[in-house]
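REQUEST ID: PR-0412
SUBMITTED BY: lab tech R.K.
PRIORITY: routine
TASK: structure prediction, single protein chain
INPUT:
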Amino acid sequence: EIAEQIDAVQRRVAALHHEIRSSQADRADLRRQVADQRRQTNEWWEWHMARLPQYHEELQKLRSAEAVSSSMSRNVEESRELLRNRKLDEEAAKADLAKAREDLQQNELQVEKFLGLVEEYEEQQRQLAQRAQLLPEQADKIQQVQRFAQRLEEAQEIKRELASE
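STATUS: complete
OUTPUT:
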């Protein structure tokens, strides 16, 4: 489950990286377009101001071009905001990934501890079985078995807790 979460987070990070690169290229292209349109607009104004009376219709077209330029400027700002948000998303995804890795490491340590307890229990069970065959009348051996059974129950409880996470 954690590995799937890590994979999902990594895929999301890769997708965000791709979107950021795409947004950056779009933003650069929009900036070039805006700069080019502004330059063209300025040249057009100068040429037409000398001929204003006879080119009133052309003036209206210029206003339309300015509206487009303004719209593109807004688009550039929106792209910048989107880029900022994507960076925040990427940082959050990285933090999630780091947390998931930390959780996985802690879970692996708990599993190793549990497996060590199980091995210890099994070894003690074998030793008790050998001793019980040699000296079946000793009551303290029975008590040891009971203590080991209790340890096994504790180890199983840890395992259930790990499984529920």
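NOTES: Residues 34 and 73 are 7 Å apart (CA to CA).
REVIEWED BY: pending
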